[in-house]
Structures are given as structure tokens and as C-alpha cells.
Amino acid sequence: MHLGLIGGIGPAATEVYYRALVRAYAAANQRLALTIVNTDAREMIANLEAGRAVEQAAIFAGYVRQLRDGGCDTAVITSMGGHFCIVELEAISTLPVLSAVPALNQYFATHEANRVGVLGTRAVMVSKLYGVDTVDVVVPPAEDLATVHSAYVTLAAAGTATPKQCSYFHEAARKLHDEQGADVVVLGGTDLSIAFKDANLNFPVVDSALIHVEAVVRSAMEQR
Question: What range defines the domain where residue 69 resides?
Fold first, then answer.
């Protein structure tokens, strides 16, 4: 299967997906067929914040057509924030879209966790990972949502994390664990791995991007 990634939203997340796919295919001794198109993170963020799902889906659909014309068999959005328009995109996409939402549902259905906390964009947090229902999902309190969202968007656009940003997100994760009883904290922003790379926390943190990649690889291997 020739995989197509919609990347650039943001660059750090695209790199996470790329490296994880390369590792997975090398481990399986398989050849990776992959094409990446680069979308505009600023445009996507503006549409996300304005709730323009139909408009963003149309933009993504244009990139999907590029991937199709380049020989891809399926498309992947390398951003949990970008999944805010996944339903609208699936309705008009010229390729099958491998969504992260079913992957997250399946992951939590088979792992021991009663409650998970989520950090990411406002859309990811308020929707509780776009409706994941195999586990209880908790998010930062209402008064903190805007700050977490803004901090994440800034990090994603830059593609790097300062020590101050890392400390902020580590503390936000601790609050989800200590104050809201989260057994696991999910990095629901696919660029957040750069802020947690050297984190020393006393509770598990899982990356939604890597969970998504695992599901993409399984699907691709089954259909090769």
C-alpha cells in the first residue's frame, strides 16, 4: 500500500509520523511506499479556531487529490487538531482516510486504563478526543482550556518547545493525573511529543500520533 500523509500541521508531528513509519516498516522487513504533501499550518489553525470544518475539509480534499494523483492508496492526517473536520473530509475524499479516532478507541479498549486525561487543541479536548468512548476521558478545567489551547498552537506552529513550555505542559499533565484521577495522559496534540521528550513523570504518558501510526501500519500490512 502506498501511504499518503497530509503533513506540515505542524512540522514536528510530520517528523514523528515519518520516523515511526520508517521504523515500523524496517522492523517488518517491508518496503515503505510513502508520499507527503505539505499543508499550511497557519491556515488550518485559523479554520480550526473559527470552526470552519467544511472549508478545511475542502482544503484537505485538494491535498488528497494530489496524493491520489501521486499513486497513493490512502490518506492520513498527521494532526489530531486536523481531525476536527474528519467527518466532512471523509464525505468528499477521493481516497480512504485512515482516521486516528477508531485507532484511539481500539487502543484504550485493549489497555488497562479507566480514565485518561487529554492535552491538545480546544477541539480535541472539548470533544474528548472526538468522541472516544471506550474509556472515561477528562480534560483541563474550563478556565484552563483556552490557555492550554493557545500554548499548544504556539508550540505546534514553531515546531520546537522551550524549557518554559515543557514545564507548563508537564504541570498540566500532572494536574490531570493528581486532580482529576487520570491513569494515563494522552498527548492529543501530535506535536506535544517535543515537550515530553525528556519528561520525568510518575505516571504514564502516551502519544496519540504513535497510536495512530500503529493502526496505519496494521491496516497497510493487512492490505498489501
Answer: 2-100+211-222
